[in-house]
Amino acid sequence: MTTLSRPTRLPARRGPRRGDRAFAAGTRWAGIAIVSLLVGIAIVLAVESWPAWRAFGTGLLTGTTWDPTRDIYGAVPFIVGTLATAFIAVVIAAPVGLLTAIYLAEFADRRLATPLTFTIELLAAIPSVVLGLWGIFVLAPLLRDTLDAFVIAALGWIPLFAGPSYGFGVSTAGVILAIMILPTIVSIGREVLRSVPAAQREAMYGLGATRWEVATRAVLPYARSGVVGAVILGLGRALGETLAVTMVIGNTDAIPTSVFSQGQSIASKIAVTFNESTGLQSESLVGLGLILLAMTLLLNAAARLLVARTARGPRR
Amino acid sequence: MTITSPRRLGALALVAAVAVGACGGGATAAPSASSEPGASPAQTGAAGPAVPSGTVSLTGAGATFPAPLYQVWFEQFGTIHPNIKIDYQAIGSGGGIKNITSQTVDFGASDAPMKDDEIAALPAGTKILHVPTALGAVVVIFNVPGLTDLKLDGPTTAGIFLGTITKWNDPAIAALNPGVTLPASDVVVVHRSDGSGTTNAFTAYLAAVSDAWKGGPGVGKDVQWPTGIGAKGNDGVAAATKQTSGAIGYVELQYAAQAGLATAALKNADGAFVQGSVDGVTAAADAAAASFPADFRQDPIINGPGAATYPIASFTFLLLYVDQKDQAKGQALIALVYWALTDGQALEKGLGYAPLPAAVQAKAIAALHTITFGGAPIWPE
């Protein structure tokens, strides 16, 4: 981000300088290795999916049909499914996660905050297959009979909320993903808020502000970029999560028309069908992988831009 | 669990030997004496294939549907011939074909026979022998509160899976089930989300009975489903069906019983309503045996003739290289498959599979003679 000014040269000492150089080289190679790993993955995906791109051109990206019988493959249903589930997850998890983080960092008694943080972090340790099973046997029927039924009765006239709901669909996958990304948002959000210097808070208290005012006017704006970062990390996990999504999304290769429709995400589609696929279908699935990688990189870049913008923003 | 103990299996195998000897003796190439379990090459004489004496390890990969059967077979064969180690990975039929194409395994397994373009994709000069090992049935399962008996015919089943029949009390369903009270609830279709031989057999049935299906989703291991919820694996479909009131799905026979779900009786070519069962599948296989293709690439047997025939039956295959690169491995492989086709057949029924009809079994055993090493047959006739 910022280049440090060259430090004033210390008196020459042999031993440590050689060590320094070796250390610097080591760090540089580690950095290069990670970048080349990413580039390597992208290249392999591009090469392996090349026949599919040659067959469909951009149609692989913009096609709305996925028909293995006729060997026609288009990614749109899965792109929509991926974005829709990730969006629902963030819409649910971001407010809940940030409120929890603010509570833990600003309001909670320390004796309560520590076990609470620990419990939330335990949530991240639940394997996704376990969450998926819980989704099939508990969450899907529960949502179908309660929340989904209520929303369909109240808002069903809007196509986006049209029924029926079978429990398995985009919305249930979104809820499962929200649960999965919540610990990320809470724990990073809490760390970010706690790292706000005490002076920032004390100055605000000094002006006679309430705790609410301190949290919303002094702490949150200061930590804005970190908070956005926490949500972005959550989003990244939501985009790539596979197993739990597979188990509750309903696995339908069509563009979902309602939040209760069955859908399919890119990661889930690859995981479920790759083993049994041959020829053009398998190459198109690798193409899906490339699209997912590109989507993740683009979203991350966009989020970084957003963070940079807001961090430099005029409001203070 | 006692059924899987070696001693019990040995007893079963002995019964098998007698059964095979009794019913298939005339038709099979091998005399019944060779079916004796644990028989050494010396005892089997010229008829049974020789078993190599050195340590041989075989690796195979493919279909998940016959995996429970293969596991028992390979364990049992390993007890008889401890010097032969067999490792089978149930990665799916597509994976089996991929591995046999890239020559990373000694044998593959697939529920659907290899398609022409898959055979064309094999390395030059490589020939694959399809060996049928067992048969399975695809059954229609449903979960409708209060409904235990359901009769369906082809067009109605296709209508349900096409999404044109959306209510359980649809006149088409009601007409087939006189006297049964059908609820006015939604029909929720549950299908496989992963590519599968089960889907291949089921869509072959739907295409055979419905032009709309044939011209629409078509036949394959993975198709574009017009409606419904996708779930992974037979157990996934069974779970989703069990969880969803009004659901209808399709699974391999043994999974319906495991999940405790009711199965629909399907109308067969003779107009009789038949529940999916091992006997119904064997009847279908017997009827189809006469027209078994020379290269063994038998597609699912749909709507076979006979009053007891269940309309959706399909073979599962082992895929073997006709030209073996290693003589000992080739010998071990032939001995294994020969054993599976003879003694191994008796283990099938208990595990929910239908054994091969005698005529197909004889053809499969005869085909093992065509496997060569360096141009010469490994097991000459």
Number of helices of chain A: 14
Kindly report the spatial arrangement of strands forming the biggest sheet of chain A: 1-2
Helix content of chain B: 25-40%
CATH topological fold name of the largest domain in chain B: D-Maltodextrin-Binding Protein, domain 2
- CATH fold descriptor of the domain at 78-275 in chain A: MetI-like fold
- Tell me the helix content of chain A: over 70%
Distance linking N and C termini of chain B: 40 Å
Total domain count of chain B = 2
The largest sheet of chain B is: 10 strands, mixed
SSE sequence of chain B, one letter per element: HHEHEHEHEEHHEHHEHEHEEEHEEEHHEE
Written description of the protein model:
The complex is a heterodimer of chains A (316) and B (381). With 316 residues, chain A is mainly α. Chain A has a domain at 78-275: MetI-like (MetI-like fold). In chain A, a hairpin with a 4-residue loop joins β1 and β2. In chain A, α2 crosses α14, α8 (170-194) packs antiparallel against α11 and α11 packs antiparallel against α14 (279-312). Chain A is flat, with a radius of gyration of 24 Å. Chain A has 14 helices and two strands, in the order αααββααααααααααα. In chain B, strands 1, 2, 3, 4, 6, 7, 8, 9, 12 and 13 form a ten-stranded mixed sheet that branches. Chain B has a three-stranded mixed sheet with strand order 5-10-11. In chain B, α6 (154-162) crosses α8 (197-209). Chain B has 14 helices and 16 strands. Chain B starts with 5 loop residues before the first helix and ends with a strand. In chain B, β15 and β16 form a beta hairpin. Helix content of chain B is 36%, strand content 20%. Chain B folds into two domains: 2-135 and 316-377, D-Maltodextrin-Binding Protein, domain 2 (3-Layer(aba) Sandwich), CATH 3.40.190; 137-295, 3-Layer(aba) Sandwich (D-Maltodextrin-Binding Protein, domain 2), CATH 3.40.190. Chain B has 381 residues and is α/β, with parallel strands linked by helices. Classes of the chains: A mainly alpha (316), B alpha/beta (381). The A-B interface holds A 65-70, 136-137, 140-141, 164, 166-168, 246-247, 250-253, 262, 264, 272-273, 275-279, 281-282 and B 91-95, 97-98, 117-118, 121, 186, 188, 193-196, 217-225, 228-232, 236, 239-240, 243-244.
